[in-house]
From TrEMBL:
<dbReference type="GO" id="GO:0016020">
    <property type="term" value="C:membrane"/>
</dbReference>
<feature type="transmembrane region" description="Helical">
    <location>
        <begin position="78"/>
        <end position="97"/>
    </location>
</feature>
<feature type="region of interest" description="Disordered">
    <location>
        <begin position="228"/>
        <end position="248"/>
    </location>
</feature>
<dbReference type="InterPro" id="IPR006694">
    <property type="entry name" value="Fatty_acid_hydroxylase"/>
</dbReference>
<dbReference type="GO" id="GO:0005506">
    <property type="term" value="F:iron ion binding"/>
</dbReference>
<feature type="domain" description="Fatty acid hydroxylase">
    <location>
        <begin position="85"/>
        <end position="219"/>
    </location>
</feature>
<dbReference type="GO" id="GO:0008610">
    <property type="term" value="P:lipid biosynthetic process"/>
</dbReference>
<dbReference type="InterPro" id="IPR050307">
    <property type="entry name" value="Sterol_Desaturase_Related"/>
</dbReference>
<keyword id="KW-0472">Membrane</keyword>
<dbReference type="GO" id="GO:0016491">
    <property type="term" value="F:oxidoreductase activity"/>
</dbReference>
<feature type="transmembrane region" description="Helical">
    <location>
        <begin position="39"/>
        <end position="58"/>
    </location>
</feature>
<protein>
    <submittedName>
        <fullName>Sterol desaturase family protein</fullName>
    </submittedName>
</protein>
<dbReference type="Pfam" id="PF04116">
    <property type="entry name" value="FA_hydroxylase"/>
</dbReference>
<keyword id="KW-1133">Transmembrane helix</keyword>
<keyword id="KW-0812">Transmembrane</keyword>
<feature type="transmembrane region" description="Helical">
    <location>
        <begin position="6"/>
        <end position="27"/>
    </location>
</feature>
Amino acid sequence: MTLIVGLRYLASSGAFALATRAVRPGLYTGLDAQIRREIAWSLASAAIYGVPAGIVAWGWQNRGWTRIYTDPHAYPLWYLPLSILLYLAAHDTWFYWTHRWMHRPKPFRLAHAVHHASRPPTAWAAMAFHPVEALTGAVVIPLLVFVIPVHVAALGLVLGIMTVMGVTNHMGWEVFPRFMWRGAMGGWLITASHHQRHHAEYRCNYGLYFRFWDRLCGTDRGVGGFDPAPRRARAAGGDAPGERRADD
Ligand SMILES: [Zn+2]
Ligand SMILES: [Zn+2]
């Protein structure tokens, strides 16, 4: 399972990094050392993600664990999209609160600083987490499959959405159509325009898929732009402004 997660990461981040090179040539110029770090942390995270996923997948196949089902008629068909939404909402809730917690000074220094060392993040930063943070992320879906019934294909879709959003949110440009990050629908969804602002300003925009918790808790600062200034600062040998804000 570790191998699958690792290859999934390399394939998805690699594909979007290639797309970035085609659509925004030069966006990652000068970031080679950072990208190498992002890949190393991400592969370590993949190893960690693989362990609970592997145990649960084995238990599902061999011991009948979990509430994953394969007969699409085991539940009403309307439950299929609902189950996907439930998984995304539960994961989002878990992510929002653990993420906010990891912005407290101690856990930030211990773990989350690794993720924010990417300034600005690239498509390779999707799984660039300290092992402690990787562990908090790795247990979510393996625990949820014991609680919320889900068809195996719906679960595959959830994992697909998780992968694509993890990569595109860090890519440095917006791949999705405008209605997904502006207007009535965009007001509730998180794409790169929203998460980029978290990486730029730290103490806001903590969510993963939805802006619900950010808006409810007053931590939503809206979508931001993609400022090429960090690249200019690097070119001039300037220091990135992020670190000093970590504990504020
Ligand atoms: Zn991030
Ligand atoms: Zn953060």
